[in-house]
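Table 4 source record.
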Amino acid sequence: MSEFAGKLIGIIGAGATGRAAGPVLSRQGARLRIYDARPATELTAAVEALAPIAELRLGDPHYAGIEECDLIVPSPGVRQEDPALQAAVRRGTPVLSEIEIAYRIAKAPIVAVTGTNGKTTTVFMAAAVLEAGGLPVQIAGNVLAGGFQVPLIQAAETHPADGWIVAEISSFQLEWVEHFRPKIAVITNVTADHLDRHGTVEAYVEAKANLLRAQGPGDWTVLNLDNPATRGLTDRARGTLLRFSRSPLTDFGAWAETVEGGRCLFGRIDSVGFCNITADELRVPGEHTVENALAAILVGLAAGVAPERIGDALRIFAGVPDRLESVAVIDGVEYVNNTMCTNVDAAVQSIRAYDRPVVVIAGGKDKGLDFDPLGQTIAERAKSLVAIGHDGPRIADAARRHGFTQIRHAASMRDAVRTAAEEAAPGDVVLLAPACASFDWYTSFEARGRDFKEQVAALADERAATLESVD
C-alpha cells in the first residue's frame, strides 16, 4: 500500500503542480484538498481536471483549513517563508515538494540535473547518451521534451524500472526535499540568479546543495570543478564523486585536453580512460557546451554506457530549442535564439561563444542581478547592443560604463529584430541573449523565443519579397 493512501494532502497551487501531482496522488489512494489564491474563474482548465478527484478551495490567499491536512505539497512558486508553510513546520506537518513525492513512488533510477546554467542542454545530452546505450529514457522536470513538459511525478509513476528518468530540477523545488535521492546528481554550475527569491548567493547555493544531501553509497555525484560554488560542494558529496573540468584532471572524472593539436574530451570512472570525440565535433558552440558534454559523459559512464556510444551520441547532438538555437541566415547574418538565457552569467557565456561580430538583443525583467559583468562583456565582444524590455536600459547603462556606445533601443521584438538587422553585416551574428526573465512582455521565455523566431521569419519574407520585386 502506498504511504500516501488515506492521507489528506493539501496541494497549494491548482496550476501546473496541482494538475500534475493531484491525479498521481489520487491514484496512490490519497484524499486531496487543492488550494489556490486565484478564483475559479481564472482556473477553468484546472477546475475541470481536478474537481472530480479533489476538494477545491479557491480564491482564498490564507488557505483556510490547511492545518487539517496530513501533508502539504506546495507549488514551487510558493515562497518558503509563506505563513501557511511556516505554520505547518511549527506544528510538525510534513511539507514536501512534488519531486520528493516523485522520488518516493519512482521505479526507475533518476538522473537529476540542477545548476544556474546549462541544465536543459545537459539533460538532453545525458538523455541522448543513455538512449545511445540502449536504455529506455524519459526526460522530465522543468524542461520541454517533444514540445510538452512531463512533470517528474508523472514520469515517476509510469516509467519502468529498467529505464532511466533524466530530470531538470530547480532550486525552488529543492527547498522542500527530505529523502530525494537521485542515482546520479549533476550540478552544472552555480552563479548569481534568483536573488529576488533566495536573497543571497549563499542561500541559493544551499538550495542547490539539497540535491546531494540524501545520496549515499551506490550513487554518483557529478560536479563542475571549474565553477567555484560547485567546487566548494565536493566535500558534501555522499555518493561517488565525479568531477569535470575544461582542464586536464589526473584522477576520475571528465576533462578536456589538447592532444596532438586536437582538444579531446576524456572520461574515466575506473582505471581506464577514453576519448573518442573532440571539442570541435560538438555542434553547439561555446565553452559552456564543452562543460555540458563532459557532464553527460560522466552520466553515461556511471550508467554503464559504452564509451563509443557516448561519443556517437554527443557527435550528433544538435542542441535544444531556445538554447543557442540557430534560427536562420538572412543576407549572410545568422540569427540565434537564446531566450533561455535569463541571467547575467548565461548571457556572458553565450556572447563569448562566438568568434564573430555579435549584435546582442538583451533585456527583460531583472531578477535582482548585477549587470556590470554583462556590460563589460558587451563592451569587449559585441558589435552593437539592442536593449529591450523593462530593464534593457539598465543593461545599456552597464555597457556605457565600460565605454560602449553602439547602443540602440527597441519597444517590441519586431523592432528589435529589424534594428539588429540594420546593425549587422554579412558574417555577423544577431543573438537574443536577454539576461533577464521574460515577464515584462511575455508569459514565459518560450513565448519570447517564439516571438523572436516569428519576427526573424517575417524579416526573411520581407527580404525575399524585396528581391522578387527587384527581379
